[in-house]
Amino acid sequence: MGENNMIRVTEHRIFIEKMLMDYNLKKEWLKIVPSIQEWCQKNDVEEDHPFRIAKCICRTDGTRDLLFAEELTDDMISSAKGSMMIRGFLSEVSLLDTDFKFLIHTVLHEIACPILRTIDQVTRDEWAFAQMKKYAI
Q1: What's the pLDDT tens digit per position in 2-36?
Q2: CB contact at 8 A, 75 and 65
Q3: What is the pLDDT of residues 88-130, one digit of tens each?
Q4: What is the pLDDT of residues 33-91, one digit of tens each?
Q5: Which of 18, 19, 65, 132 has the highest Cβ tally under 10 A?
Q6: Is the Cβ–Cβ distance between 125 and 89 less than 8 Å?
């Protein structure tokens, strides 16, 4: 897929925290967990997808959790890219030609949830692809 057999998200924690701060989001909201589905089950959050790579949880009190799986396998990455292509982002997905670019897009997609105040996947993908220019991509 890219440089590795998987993306180890924990290795990019400081960069992801900086991205959150770029958008005036609290770095404490970042949670890198072994399994998003298991974390959600333990925290009474609905999540059916066993291979979810990231999830934004926005609460009515203004608190957030931005969850990322600690390891993103090639299968998980391929599945996420496939979902984006189904949503109409064929040419944009081809720009995610390295693991790092994919990770940046994924982080921006989750940042879009509190910034745009929407859970709409297409809107968040559009915004994330546009924002990638900030990171020279």
Answers
A1: 444 689 999 999 999 999 999 999 999 999 999 99
A2: no
A3: 999 999 999 999 999 999 999 999 999 999 999 999 999 999 9
A4: 999 999 999 999 999 888 899 999 988 888 899 999 999 999 999 999 999 999 999 99
A5: 19
A6: yes
- Measuring CA to CA, which residue among 99, 109, 125 is closest to residue 9? 99
Sign, CA torsion 122/131/59/7: positive
Q: Number of helices (H) and strands (E), helices first, in the chain? A: 6, 5
State the residue for tokens 């989750």. 110
Give the single-character DSSP code of 30: E
What are the residues facing 6 on neighbouring strands? 73
Cβ-contact 29, 20 below 8 angstroms: yes
Residue 85 · residue 50 · CB < 8 Å: no
Sign of CA dihedral 75, 20, 110, 130: negative
Phi first, then psi: give them for residue 62, nearest 5 degrees. Answer: 95, -10
Residue 18 CB partners (closer than 8 Å, separation 6+)? none
Residues in the chain: 137
Please answer whether residues 101 and 92 qualify as being in contact, where contact means their C-beta atoms are separated by less than 8 angstroms.
no
